[in-house]
Amino acid sequence: MKKYIGAIDQGTTSTRFILFNHESDIVASSQLEHKQIFPKAGWVEHDPIEIWENTKTVIKDTLEKSKISSNQIVTIGITNQRETTVIWNKKTGKPYYNAIVWQDTRTDLICKALKKNEKLFKRKTGLPIATYFSGSKIKWLLDNVDGLRKAVEQGDAIFGNMDSWIVWNLTNGKHITDVTNASRTMLMNLQTLDWDDELLEILDIPRKILPKICSSSEVYGNVKIGFANEIPISGILGDQQSALFGQTCFQKGSVKNTYGTGCFILLNTGNEIVYSQHGLLTTVGYQIKGQKPIYALEGSVAIAGSLIQWIRDNFQLIADSSEINELAESVDDNGGVYFVPAFSGLFAPHWNSSARGTIIGLTHFVNKFHIARSVLEATAFQTRDVFEAMQKDSGLKIKKLKVDGGMTASKLLMQFQADILNASVILPSISETTALGAAYVAGLAVGFWENLEELQNYWKEKNVWSSNMSENEREKLYNQWKKAIKRSLDWEE
Fold first, then answer.
1. CA atoms within 13 A on the CB side of 456
2. Is residue 147 part of a domain?
3. How far is CA 267 from CA 82, 122, 256, in A?
């Protein structure tokens, strides 16, 4: 009997393959980091070939470590870093350029030129004009890579976010994406769930290079590479939507926050498209084949866990990321220091690409322990910014936040998050919710799991943090944070 579901989790810093059993437990996994390439200030790239090679390696390693044969795997789901853009030759499989990562800000001038069309883009796609999304990255590649426009005319060049790139390689040429990834391109109409010809014309992007848009849970094709037998691929979700699904946030009004490289808060708005008036994104949450899509409001924070890596690598304040907690716990408060990590501008709800990082409030009293604490608190404050906007847009008073991701290991951060939000912060017993979401949509498509109700039975609480902070203290700290944010805005001309 086939007993396992495989999930490929292609993230910003690494690629993983995880095997789950029917009870949602992790049976085996393998992970490999890939190189972060910074050719210029504000530019961030990945090597798509390295990522594909790593994908094959982690699959192989997981099977070897677990001694599970591939014929025991029912199906595979894929979750991926969204917006990261690659264009490759469909005959040779070679990329024309490195993948341009979601954090990359090189398309700032393209986005400024598009601002006159912002209302149109927001109405159709739910997204503001920003360097974050794939559309401006595709345009930059077409305009700047020698011979690429000609390759498009000849029908050789095709585009994808990383889900499309991985599927294309696994299946020997299936060129598809799902609605959640397509909704992050600035090119898909939220109502029709199809590429929008008017937006494609504005950006001068030919429709023929784009993948076919599918639901998040259906059989797309079979894996032809890396396994002894053919296995169906039957689920795709962008990483943050996948965490929403893995957290079983199936009810309208349920919210999750993933603390990874960045920080991503999603609120399920049901079948209703809620357009944000307060700097959030409207996006597709997920779609089961044959059903109406579920939409979400999203607040994206660019720098969260990557700030700890930056402190480690650029400041050498710590040797290992886990040490930040120990330093931060050595003091009772931040000593008046606020760290705004606007390294590539600020995302939600500010959307200011000319903001730059700021450490403010320094005095003779301040030491490395206060700096460490301000690094952790920055993530909680940025989450509060998004939380406030979410409550205004939805009209809901949110009292619970489901959390996941690497930074949830910091009890100090989780307690401070509960304090600054005045809400319960809830950690599930299964920590790998992003990969789990991909496994869930894949398993539903092939009947491994029956329905959403069955999946909810597997979600269990591990820890809950409640606010211990007075209202006066909470608002005093948050008002100081808002002052720090103002100082960081519009630094770049």
1. 7
2. yes
3. 18, 18, 7
Residue 490, Cβ neighbours under 10 Å: how many?
11
The domain that holds 32 is classified in CATH as: 3.30.420.40
Mean pLDDT for the chain?
Answer: 92
**Is 0.90 topped by the overall pTM?**
no
104, 83 in Cβ contact below 8 A?
A: no
Is 57 part of a structural domain of the chain?
Answer: yes
What mean pLDDT is predicted for residues 212-237? Answer: 89
16 domain residue, yes or no: yes
First to last CA, the chain: 62
Q: In which band, very low, low, confident or very high, does the pLDDT at 226 lie, cut at 50, 70 and 90?
A: low
Total domains in the fold of the chain: 1
Going by pLDDT thresholds of 50, 70 and 90, the confidence category of residue 309 is confident
Residue 122 belongs to a domain: yes
CB contact set of 286 (below 8 Å; sequence gap of 6+): 179, 180, 216, 217, 237, 241, 244, 245, 293, 294, 441
Chain-centroid distance of CA 441 in Å reads 17
The number of angstroms, rounded, from the C-alpha of 341 to the middle of its chain's C-alpha atoms is: 18
For the chain, how many residues are written? 493
Domain that holds residue 200: 4-240
76 touches 63 (CB < 8 A): no
C-alpha dist (Å) from residue 487 to 146, 310, 332, 367: 40, 21, 25, 22
